[in-house]
Amino acid sequence: MKPNVVLYKKIPADQLARLRQAFNLTEFDSITPDNHRAVLAALAQADGLIGASHPIGAQLLDAAPQLRAISTISVGYDQFSVPDLTRRGIVLMHTPGVLTETTADTIFTLILTSARRAIELAEWVKQGKWRRSIGEEYYGTDVNGKTIGILGMGRIGYAVAKRAFLGFGMPVIYYNDVANPQAETLLNARRRSLDQVLAEADFVCVVLPLLPETEKLIDYAQLAKMKSSAILINGSRGKIVNETDLIRALQEGVIRAAGLDVFEQEPLPVNSPLLTLPNVVALPHIGSATHETRHAMVVCAVDNLIAALAGDVTTNCVNPTALARH
Ligand code: DGY
Question: Among 105, 195, 218, 309, which residue carries the largest CB count within 10 Å?
Fold first, then answer.
């Protein structure tokens, strides 16, 4: 008998075919108030769950008494309570690795566009305002040679550091709970306290995971420790930065600018003051959003679910201790 699996995201046809072949699949494009009851009904028989971008909390899990594995099509797993899943014996699989370089590209896009005011000035050109050579009031700030401070030196932090050091000649400092010897040896990266990174960096890049201890880590007091010429980049999770405090810091000139791919609330509300600030580059959470990488993430997530439901997990498991309960 094939295991029962619930899919809650629209995925490419080739990967849908793989899921249909391996499992008895119940398909939803997403979880919405309209299909909530149908999702709960499907979960009653589910052995596996695969999807992304929706919180999976106690109500959904209570409806799924035989659930053994969840495969999230993302590297981040802040939509789940990992201790709760582990207690229930549910293995959580994710997709690290396949999106590292693409997400680092997005973070570098934010660094370059916010430093050089590229989005603001491209709009200005489109509005027909380019009548003569631009004046000093529209100058940006250099990226090359500036110090980059990276909060979080995992895979993505390393990929950002590699671009910064090898491509742009930027000294790298970082804040992380453990040292990254590869970054220190190959990229001359130096591990510092959070306060030191904030005070010394020209670009502060947030690439930490969202955890109880990182939620609202960057508030007004922390922003005030940055140079007034510095730029904050967030390519991780919006909730790591206190957004109200960030808006205030940007309005008051406490920091120069911000480049943001993530927000406390997504989609970003249309009345957010962030949208009226010229010194903010705001992207719609596109860290991994290329055709190639989004496809690779789905392939990885399908592989992960097949392995987990076959009792064959070797990699990409968030909570290996849950395996002991299978
Ligand atoms: C991830 O994979 O966690 C990306 O942020 C997309 O959600």
Answer: 218
